Amino acid sequence: MRKLNLLFMVIVGVLFSAMTVLAQAQAAADHAADSGAGLKAIAAGVGFAIAVFGGALGQSRIGAAACEGAARNPGAAAKIQTMMILGLALIESLVLFALLVVFAKV
Question: Which CATH superfamily is domain 38-106 in?
Answer without folding.
Answer: F1F0 ATP synthase subunit C (1.20.20.10)
